[in-house]
């Protein structure tokens, strides 16, 4: 690739973004009381000198404060996979908060059992508890795994994503050992004291780490997502399950992003058998919600332990977890929005998106790859597609990524700012997908010169 041409195109698109968005630029400039000038510092991970500011969003559309409307393939990095403010969730939230009242009263609601039963139908885990985020669901699942096994360490995949869970911020060094992930802020201790790591799709590496006998649980996504989609090779996930059982470690599937694979995530689609399952983001239809499920056998083992304080001091739970508003939103989302039928349509749209990207790559002979996980599609700047998280991380090209994101945004299309992910929601249309195909092809043509 001609880097000089890329730099010129990136400068042009950056200038155009600044010209098109004066109100967003001004809002960012005067945000003196916010740490990093944004509500959360990750909002600065955007192409261009400042983020676009949200005015409104509905379905698969976002409108910024400068009046530009976008086809939204970002969808809150999965948090809005149900679409923005879907009507059934809006109605359920209004009824709970405005009509009945009581968002959080430290009392259970009947909605919770309905949600638990539906999560069991979808994912197969028999018992469920709630959190506000998938990060907390992962933290609490880890604590339960340590309690029931008596082992101290958690094993994760290199360049995995499990939120801000301390134990997950570890990657493989060139010699195959574990090392802190670059950029980890204020770690409470050396992560190698709490964690072990193996590459995704590497059963030999996994077995080597499990052989130490100190791993309470393997916490993993059935497919890596936040470093770009890395799909499991044939037999890999079955091998993980066999090895964890042989070495006495529990298996935790984090389906927060891989929920895109279908109504029951990868666990249902690929007939997986985890001991615990964590999920968050999309299940609340945009309202903060998370959950973790346990197998019946594991739940019984934990509840039989009279030495465990699972009520107050056990480090599992939060005052707002399982609140009436979140649970009502989750019930509405699962019952009426992210249905089995909706997933079938979303996956078909993602397949169309994948085909459009692939056609663009083929037209220019680009050595890139594109992968799909149900309703989620992503391209990487390498071919063949990466088979590990470390390979996927090595394929990053921040300048190229920024150019494509700015080019698309300046023409009314949003991708996830952290990477090249596009997600479909129930309101996404074929025309939305085809619009991306056209604009993406135009961007590649400009790069080719």
Automatic annotation (TrEMBL):
Gene Ontology MF annotations: transaminase activity
Superkingdom as given in the UniProt entry: Bacteria
Signal sequence extent: none
One Pfam family of this chain: Aminotran_3
UniProt keyword terms in alphabetical order: Aminotransferase, Pyridoxal phosphate, Transferase
PANTHER family: GLUTAMATE-1-SEMIALDEHYDE 2,1-AMINOMUTASE, GLUTAMATE-1-SEMIALDEHYDE 2,1-AMINOMUTASE 1, CHLOROPLASTIC-RELATED
Family: Belongs to the class-III pyridoxal-phosphate-dependent aminotransferase family.
Name by which UniProt lists this protein: Aspartate aminotransferase family protein
Naturally occurring in which organism (per UniProt): Streptomyces bangladeshensis
Source organism phylogeny: Bacteria, Bacillati, Actinomycetota, Actinomycetes, Kitasatosporales
